[in-house]
Design goal:
heterodimer, A: about 600 residues, B: mainly alpha, globular
Chain lengths: ~600, ~300
């Protein structure tokens, strides 16, 4: 039993996590590092594996196909890089818990990806939500307990929906098997639709799709930054979107209307989250909202019913985990040096933290989908897929689909705006003397963000060669889909080469004509003092104050759109009604009993 | 990498052609603008003189600012614009695709704004930062309309994304401007371009009288020369792009050359007239205009295009 590779991928981190409870911090770090080396080696060895399974009592519990391999490889890669960042820099008082939880999360996430049996899937899915909650409790802001509760309720609540969904799937399944693969339930009646949407709720809660996204920004603000990069920015995206991808391919056979509903939800997610991100003044919350907005693209791509967009969605999933964890980690570096993540307290750090600035800039450009970075390639695939799908639809559906596409493309302009604010507020603007003497960023943090940034570039320029040909297209073939055909053209190598040539030409002209002198900033003929500075946080006040957005924004700030808040209020008010019926007077209770008995008799 | 690619990027229709034509059209702009205000206007070679003179001046860098970014920004923008000019020009003049489709072009166009922001805000000057913020606001304003406008030719060509397919489709079925949706989209696109080039009434980010050229305020010497050159190059890139997606490209034989000049000069003159007859509007007015008035019209154009009108 212990020679099964798939089982080892779960058992090793699990064992290390329990062992870590008793060890000193330094040993914990070494062991976690060793674990990740081992799981990565196992994963690499599984690259050519066929039909690797683990059976227990003649039930297939774990199995590996190309699609789960893709997600599995993503998990190991991201866990590894984020671990490098965490080796030096995690707050001292939470280090012990952190390095016990880290392998635990890895084990459960691997478990979710590898599970074929519904039960094991459900168990690992629930447990991975639990580690999210535990990580959240390590935060040290004053809202931490509240946020942890909210996260746990949304994620845990969605598990209940998943259980119901799985039960219905079992019921509808002709063979009544518990396998999650190749059930292919057609959406024909109310029951199958219910099952589908129950699954959708689970997947959206985990990944952060509208309207179940509200835990992500709060979690981002109130948890240790490494855990934010680790879970909501990367692993939860991989898990949630993996489930969505399974749903639309092997679990259900969906029709065009469902495609359109998912695409619409994706488009709404993109726009709402980007608009919310624009007005955030906390760096972590801004990134949290932007994370949600990027989930919209994945949802759109995967739910659109076009193979090209599906591949784009999967590619965007891995790209997003790379650049968003890069950004969170870069912000983490800033936060650990300066002690704050409030954007209006930072500024002018580009000169002081040049490496972090470059990494954050690369992350920013990738997120906004600027060519030739990786974010552009996957978005471009999704757009093409949607265009391709639109061409096959009837007129009404065409308009509907195109509006979603417009919102998605516009969303990336909004994302750019969001990140201009982010970059400006932290790194650009006036140099501040108070930051002149901050400590240097540790080498491991630069290494981690540097690795992620170089992945952004490599996946952008050699997108077809590396991720698509090796991981995504085999996954599609495994699912029985044909390899996608691009309908547009984009040649990143040529573009970057020609751009490089022209850029160098310009620089040569500059170097030949260069005469430089240095001077201070002046303002109205006088030395510009430090107090005259533009923060960057006020950039979008015009948008915030615009009708009718101002009303929407104020409602959003009052949490009218927060599903958690709505449910809590509903529960509380219902509970109040019930409370009033319980005044503690005996004769009233006797009356209830008599009335209840009468009703009971009448019904009989 | 073929040798002709080098010709494309460096000589025609890339850097050399675009800069020279841009500087000449820049002269037309200055001359016409001068006539609008009853001035004489500069001599023909003024823009060339300005450019070379700025190359000879010394550049002032701000102490304690990010110098590498400050210097690199105009050159990155220059590289991107040269690339765009090549991609659009090769399709227009040779009828072949080059490097990317319409989505790639739309996204590459955003890099210019990003570089304006990064270069300007790296200095720490408050006017530059204000200008940078305004540049982004203007970008998110006009980008929505620009997306709508760019989708119209995609829809009308039967969901083709490649520039050469769009132009071939127009060659066989007539230019898109000949339809209701085409006209609407074309008119909107001219306004969009006005905003993308930050010309009046959308010179909000640079607003000389108010925030002293905004992001360009601290620039001097060769980097400034390149910013100016970039601006003039856009006088070629954007009209060519419109000609490509709406006016059916050119046919450079016989009367075609006349048509080419007419189409190009026509668009530029419309832009110059708009520039000289409108005062600068406020940022919120611009956002309101683009989001509340222009976008619904753009959506109408898309719906018309889907219906085949």
């Amino acid at each position: 039993m212990l020679n099964n590779n798939l089982l080892l991928l779960i058992l090793i981190p699990l064992a290390i996590s329990f062992l870590n409870i008793f060890l000193p911090t330094i040993l914990r770090k070494i062991l976690v590092f060793a674990t990740l080396v081992v799981t990565s080696i196992i994963t690499i060895n599984l690259f050519n594996a066929n039909n690797e399974t683990f059976t227990l009592f003649s039930n297939t519990i774990l199995s590996l196909d190309k699609m789960s391999y893709f997600a599995l490889a993503g998990i190991q890669l991201l866990s590894f890089i984020i671990l490098i960042f965490s080796l030096k820099g995690v707050e001292n008082n939470i280090q012990k818990q952190f390095f016990a939880l880290y392998p635990l999360t890895l084990a459960f996430s691997n478990g979710v990806i590898l599970s074929e049996h519904s039960f094991s899937f459900l168990i690992f899915w629930g447990l991975s939500g639990l580690t999210l909650y535990l990580f959240n409790l390590l935060g040290k802001t004053k809202d931490t307990p509240k946020t942890a509760k909210k996260t746990f309720l949304i994620i845990g609540g969605s598990d209940a929906f998943l259980i119901m969904g799985l039960a219905i799937v079992w019921f509808l399944n002709p063979g009544n098997s518990w396998s999650l693969l190749s059930t292919n339930i057609p959406l024909v009646d109310g029951l199958s639709y219910t099952a589908f949407f129950l699954f959708l709720i689970a997947s959206f809660s985990k990944a952060g799709g509208f309207p179940f996204h509200t835990w992500v920004p709060d979690y981002s603000k109130d948890s240790p930054v490494e855990s934010v990069a680790f879970l909501p920015a990367s692993l939860d995206k991989l898990l949630g979107i993996y489930l969505l991808a399974r749903m639309v391919t092997t679990l259900f056979e969906i029709d065009i209307l469902v495609n359109l509903i998912i695409v619409t939800l994706g488009a709404i997610t993109i726009i709402i989250a980007a608009m919310m991100a624009m007005i955030q003044n906390n760096g972590r919350k801004l990134l949290g909202y932007s994370t949600i907005s990027q989930v919209g693209y994945m949802i759109m791509g995967i739910g659109s019913g076009s193979i090209l967009a599906f591949a784009g969605g999967l590619f965007h999933m891995i790209n997003h985990t790379i650049y968003k964890s890069n950004l969170f980690l870069a912000l983490g570096s800033v936060e650990k040096r300066t002690g704050t993540n409030e954007l209006n307290k930072l500024g002018g750090l580009g000169k002081i933290m040049p490496f972090t600035f470059i990494m954050a800039l690369i992350g920013t450009l990738s997120t906004s989908g600027v060519p030739p970075f990786n974010g552009f390639f996957s978005k471009w695939m999704i757009y093409q897929g949607i265009i391709e799908k639109t061409a096959t639809l009837t007129v009404g559906y065409q308009i509907w689909m195109l509006i979603c596409l417009i919102l998605a493309i516009f969303g990336s302009a909004l994302t750019l705006a969001v990140f201009i604010k982010f970059i400006h507020a932290i790194f650009l603007g006036k140099y501040q003397k108070k930051f002149a003497k901050i400590k240097r960023t540790p080498i491991n943090q630069i290494l981690a963000t540097g690795l992620l940034s170089s992945l952004c570039i490599i996946f952008g320029i050699w997108a077809v060669k590396i991720p698509l040909n090796n991981f995504i297209i085999p996954a599609l073939q495994d699912l029985g889909l044909s390899a996608p055909q691009f309908i547009g053209t984009y040649n990143p190598q040529l573009i970057i080469l020609l751009f490089g040539l022209t850029f160098v030409t310009g620089m040569i002209i500059y170097l030949f004509t260069k005469k430089v002198k240095f001077d201070n900033n002046y303002l109205g003929g006088m030395d510009a003092e430090e107090r005259f500075r533009i923060l960057g946080t006020e950039f979008y006040n015009e948008v915030k104050n615009m009708k009718p957005l101002n009303t929407l924004y104020s409602w959003a700030e009052k949490k009218y759109f927060d599903i958690y808040d709505i449910t809590t209020k509903f529960t509380n008010s219902t509970a109040k009604l019930l409370q009033q019926a319980h005044p503690g007077q005996l004769h009233l209770y006797l009356l209830y009993i008599v009335v209840g008995l009468l009703i009971f008799l009448l019904l009989i | 990498m073929k040798l002709e690619y080098l010709f494309f990027i460096f000589i025609f229709p890339g850097i050399l052609f675009t800069s020279i034509l841009g500087l000449i059209i820049g002269w037309v702009d200055r001359k016409v603008s001068a006539r609008f205000t009853f001035r004489v206007g500069p001599p023909f070679l003024q823009n060339f003189n300005d450019f070379f003179k700025l190359l000879g001046k010394e550049a002032t860098l701000i102490k304690n600012s990010i110098h590498s970014l400050f210097i690199a920004a105009p050159f990155v923008a220059f590289g991107t614009l040269s690339l765009l000019a090549t991609m659009i020009g090769v399709t227009l003049f040779y009828g072949i695709g080059f490097g990317g489709d319409i989505f790639v072009i739309m996204y590459l166009m955003m890099i210019y704004s990003v570089m304006i922001v990064l270069g300007g805000a790296s200095t720490g000057n408050i006017y530059s930062s204000i200008g940078a913020g305004r540049e982004v606001k203007l970008l998110i304003g006009d980008e929505l309309v620009f997306i709508l406008v760019c989708l119209v030719p995609i829809i009308k060509s039967g969901y083709q994304l490649n520039l050469e397919s769009i132009i071939n489709f127009q060659a066989s079925n007539g230019a898109f401007i000949g339809s209701a949706s085409g006209i609407l989209a074309f008119l909107l696109s001219i306004i969009c371009i006005q905003a993308k080039m930050t010309m009046q009434p959308f010179d909000i980010p640079e607003a000389e009288t108010e925030i002293v050229e905004g992001p360009l305020m601290e620039y001097s010497g060769p980097p400034l020369a390149f910013w100016k050159l970039n601006h003039f190059m856009m006088y070629v890139i954007f009209p060519f792009f419109l000609i490509l997606i709406f006016l059916g490209g050119f046919n450079l034989t016989g009367l075609g050359i006349l048509w080419f000049i007419l189409k190009y000069v026509g668009i530029v003159v419309v832009m110059i007239i708009i520039k000289n007859t409108n005062p600068r509007i406020r940022t919120d007015t611009a956002l309101n205009f683009f989001w509340k008035y222009a976008s619904p019209i753009g959506l109408l154009a898309i719906i018309l295009a889907i219906l085949g009108v």
